[in-house]
Amino acid sequence: MARNIDPVCRLCRREGMKLFLKGERCYSPKCSVEKRTYAPGMHGKKGSFRHKESDFALQLREKQKVRRFYGVQERQFRRYFRGAQRIKGMTGVTLLQTLERRLDNVIYRMGIADSRPQARQLVRHGHFMLNGRNHNVPSYLVQVGDVIDLREASRGNGYFKHLAERLGQRGMPEWLQFDENRMSGRVVGMPDRQTIEIPLKEQLIVEYYSR
Fold it and tell me: Which CATH class is domain 102-190?
């Protein structure tokens, strides 16, 4: 997957909301969204006073917001959308449920990582086992009953040694369980719309791809 090496705080400012891409910094006064509420760039402040955005602009911004929130590229995001279209039900909600089931998002939701980019890196470095086997694919879509364990070889890593101090600081959705002592998590259900805390209108994404 392509990497974004630009300052990620610009993405939050462009979307006008916190995307929680910098971990603990997003919860501190150092957060760029807290200090500068306007879009990045030399015309950022002027852009705040422009006329009302078109329907297409609103649809595009909503799509970009979700894509950046979960850290997926356009081609992959479009593939998720097409898959959601083939499933019976509301396409927008199904799309969000699919994104929530990504392994890197599950690691973040369990509180093991401070951000989704960090969770993706931890998975890629092979620190976790899925159902008893080594696994390093962040985009894997978990199923009910999947068990995620920290590898025995990774328990001595300095990051995981101090992880217990931060566990439990964020709320965990009901469809996930995590045993802090064993450093083991389990998927006990499927995500629903109420567990996705970001304020968004998924119907705009459906309208964007239905043009």
Answer: alpha beta
